[in-house]
Amino acid sequence: MREVLVIGGTGAQGLPVVKALSQSGRYTARVLTRNLGSKRAREISKLSNVTLIQGSQDNQKDLHKAFKGVWGAWVNTDGFTLGEKNELFYGIRAYEIARHEGVQHYIYAGTDYAVKDADWDANFHWGHNDAKGRVADLILSHKHDGMKVSVLTTGPYMDMLFDERGKIPLIAVEDVGAYSLWMFENPSESTGLQLKVATDAVTFEEIAGVFTKVTGKKAVHEYVPLEQYLLAAEPYPDAPANWAAGPDAPRDESTMTWRENFGPWWRYWGEGFCENRDFALLDRIHPKRIKSLEEWMRLVGYNGQAKPVLKGAEDLRAVQQAIEKASTAHMS
Ligand SMILES: NC(=O)c1ccc[n+]([C@@H]2O[C@H](COP(=O)([O-])OP(=O)(O)OC[C@H]3O[C@@H](n4cnc5c(N)ncnc54)[C@H](OP(=O)(O)O)[C@@H]3O)[C@@H](O)[C@H]2O)c1
């Protein structure tokens, strides 16, 4: 069986990839994680053909160790933890190290390159998309004779509706696994390809309508001016974009505040700069894909109740709960 290194395999997007590799019976997955003992790491280590390797995305020795000896790689660096500057550097270094270690097929988990799509208008620049956009452009520009390279570009996760926000074009993360397997197994088509995936492209009005149709519950879409929304929604006043990574996350002049990051995010999706997805192509690649927001809501039993999707946010909540528990115990 071919071994595939998965970076970000305990995360929302990487989990379905690890599951798809494991279930295929044709691959083994080696998952890079900082913490072998986390709940998600322990859960995936129980899957067949899955092993864990301890290390960090922002450590070059760890990257060498992680890529050594694998046939393929699926790489989702975490811009929210690393920050824009580090994601750019380690995004490129991961690719270079993979080539050094002789990896044969490299799938990079990309995002729409927003400031480029918006003709370099800085009002549409935000860190966690553009770093990946730059890395994708660079690695696709190289020759693919030594190592095949494919880019799988997702938009906002449909699943983020569980986590309080979401907009066009949404991807059900579950399907990222099948698209990734297709890339590994169809190199003549996938080499050099940037496949931009989505499940459904929907407006907020439509989200409200579908929600009522599926759950019978009332839903309204109300327009709120962006500045008003940003001030109300930021985790705390002037929070950095990588606030969920905790106080020790790398921060400097290049680090955006949450508002600076998510202002352009909303403008970009709202003003329709992103490239339309080719749904006919996606149907051909993955005929059993989840085809609509309605289908996804029925499949996952969506009822509007929030639940964590991102591991980063889940980890932060666990730390906060532990602190609250400790201070309650101290007071009583
Ligand atoms: N949210 C969205 O709608 C969306 C849409 C498209 C793309 N994205 C992109 O997806 C990325 C985040 O992935 P996700 O959505 O799967 O988030 P997530 O659920 O929070 O998972 C983060 C993943 O990154 C890993 N990680 C973080 N820092 C690491 C480090 N220093 N070394 C090794 N592993 C590290 C975590 O592994 P351990 O904790 O096990 O070490 C975990 O697997 C971001 O760059 C974001 O821009 C997000």
Automatic annotation (TrEMBL):
Annotated GO CC locations: nucleus
Keyword NADP: yes
Keyword Cell division included in the entry's annotation: no
NmrA-like domain segment(s): 3-139, 156-230
Coiled coil stretches, renumbered: none
The entry's keywords: NADP
Superkingdom classification of source: Eukaryota
Pfam family, one: NmrA
Family membership: Belongs to the NmrA-type oxidoreductase family.
PANTHER family the UniProt entry points to: NITROGEN METABOLITE REPRESSION PROTEIN NMRA FAMILY MEMBER (PTHR42748), SNOAL-LIKE DOMAIN-CONTAINING PROTEIN (PTHR42748:SF14)
Protein known as: NmrA-like domain-containing protein
